[in-house]
Automatic annotation (TrEMBL):
Protein name: N-(5'-phosphoribosyl)anthranilate isomerase
Lipid metabolism found in the keyword field: no
N-(5'phosphoribosyl) anthranilate isomerase (PRAI) domain boundaries: 6-209
Naturally occurring in which organism (per UniProt): Pseudogemmobacter lacusdianii
Gene name tied to this protein: trpF
Family per similarity comment: Belongs to the TrpF family.
Length: 222
């Protein structure tokens, strides 16, 4: 069975990048949401994208970004995918895809069964779906809050497009999350940090090792 693909979101420094590469993650997320402790400037992100090895998928995360903001991001650096993590409509997802010619991953917040219809709706237009915990109403961030949702809601689901599981994942719970949901792709931000925005190389290594052990049964040799 194919190996689990891990995305580590909120990469800010060369040390973060080195830790992710050493841990053999498949994706990095560069966070362009100004209110996030994981925010990177265009210049910081540009340097990281150029330092990233070939084959590592570089995702730009935005929240309800307008065209001018997206134009600046896409022109400044080579990204492989855009992650829309706000209230973007299906029409806006299609518009962003057409405007930039990049694959788009749409985040959908899930708290109960009723939220799953949106996963189907967005799977008609997006290239991937990020199934995340729904943020609390008063939250400053629409994601990256370290909150999990009831994984049984998405257990063994199949959708039209590839999907990633996110929300409150940690080195301690990622194996159980994969076993329960059969997710093939996993996303983490705060669960591999020592403080908000501060990635921890040991936690990144422990997280990817736990994820890669699942299903494939054999960890990647370093
Ligand atoms: O991480 C952030 O700060 C963030 C800000 C705004 C939108 C999304 C954000 N993060 C995304 O949310 C998931 C889950 O985060 P966590 O693991 O629960 O902390 C994260 O992987 C990002 O894709």
């Amino acid at each position: 069975m194919a190996e689990i693909r891990v995305k580590v979101c909120g990469i800010r420094t060369d040390a973060d990048l080195a830790a992710v590469v050493a841990a053999k993650a498949a994706y990095i997320g560069l966070n362009f949401f100004p209110k996030s402790p994981r925010f990177v400037t265009l210049e910081e992100a540009r340097l990281l994208t150029h330092a990233a090895p070939e084959g590592l998928c570089k995702i730009g995360l935005v929240v309800d970004a307008d065209d001018a903001t997206l134009d600046a991001i896409v022109e400044a650096m080579p990204l492989d995918m855009l992650q829309l993590h706000g209230k973007e409509s299906p029409d806006r997802v299609a518009e962003v895809k057409a405007r930039y010619g990049l694959p788009v991953m749409k985040a959908v917040g899930v708290a109960d069964e009723g939220d799953l219809a949106a996963v189907f709706d967005y799977s008609l237009v997006a290239d991937q779906i990020l199934v995340d915990a729904k943020a609390p109403k008063d939250a400053v961030l629409p994601g990256g809050n370290g909150l999990a949702f009831d994984w049984r809601l998405v257990a063994q689901r199949r959708w039209l497009k590839p999907w990633m599981l996110a929300g409150g994942l940690t080195p301690a719970n990622v194996a159980e999350a994969i076993r329960l949901t059969n997710a093939r792709q996993i996303d983490v931000a705060s669960g591999v940090e020592s403080a908000p925005g501060q990635k921890d190389a040991a936690k990144i290594a422990a997280f990817t090792k736990a994820a890669h052990m699942e299903k494939g049964g054999v960890p990647i040799l370093r």
